[in-house]
Write a structure and sequence with these properties.
This protein is 24% helix and 33% strand. Strands 6-7-5-4-3-2-1-8 form an eight-stranded mixed β-sheet, with helices on both faces. The termini are close together. The protein is an alpha+beta fold. It binds coenzyme A. Coenzyme A binds next to strand 4, helix 3, strand 5 and helix 4.
Length: 185
């Protein structure tokens, strides 16, 4: 599994396709409308935010996007979100591995103290991944999320730096140059 930045127009369009897929979009804030590619381009360009495409273990082709957005280096906080865009790769542990890798990056490299995320109530897979990653569910906003034409509850999850237990075998590579070539973790 390799993590690399969005480094080309092709990367940007692939990630945008995943995020606006009608099966995925309802889980995000833009579910009610669309996410224009121009808006996504601006999001990806934010200087402190971390957008990382990730691959499976047997290919350099990206299968998903993991993000630390709203990174605040003064307060040491960020929001986390993810899409495993390649549907055949779901249910194989990549969501959890990406969560652990991005959490590790946030605490060890960026020096953050807390990460926040939200989960649409019906998104059982996402909630399960956060639970397995050691995140805590801290609250429920009743009817806080618009999904498939109705309001559902929105759950809030978070993890503090001191709560994170790095898995013994992280099993990922970090390629900062965007090439997809494997580099140091
Ligand atoms: C949520 C998502 C990231 C999970 O990625 P993934 O690679 O499939 O996750 P993993 O394989 O690491 O783990 C999935 C877990 O959820 C469980 N799961 C899957 N569907 C489930 C369901 N309907 N109900 C309960 N648990 C479910 C799996 O059994 C697995 O848990 P287990 O290992 O204990 O069996 C992926 O489904 C996705 O991209 N969804 C669309 C976008 C999205 O929801 N993003 C999250 C917004 S923060």
């Amino acid at each position: 599994m390799t993590f690399r930045p969005i480094a080309s127009e092709e990367d940007l369009r692939l990630a945008h396709e995943w995020l606006t897929d009608p099966e995925n979009a309802p889980f995000f804030d833009w579910g009610r409308d669309t996410l224009p590619i121009l808006t996504f381009r601006v999001m990806v360009g934010k200087p402190h935010d971390v957008y990382r495409l990730f691959t499976a273990d047997d290919s350099d082709d990206p299968i998903g996007l993991a993000v630390l957005s709203g990174v605040n280096l003064t307060r040491k906080t960020a929001d986390y979100w993810i899409v495993v865009g390649s549907k055949p790769h779901r249910g194989q542990g990549f969501g959890l591995r990406a969560l652990n890798a991005m959490t590790q990056y946030a605490f060890a490299v960026l020096g953050l103290d807390v990460l926040h995320a939200f989960v649409a109530g019906p998104n059982r897979a996402s909630l399960r991944v956060f639970e397995k990653g050691g995140w805590q569910c801290t609250g429920r906003q009743r009817r806080g999320h618009w999904m498939h034409g109705q309001l559902v509850d929105r759950l809030f999850v978070d993890i503090l730096r001191e709560e994170f237990r790095q898995p013994e075998s992280p099993a990922y590579e970090w390629a900062e140059d965007g090439s997809g070539r494997k580099g140091g973790a």
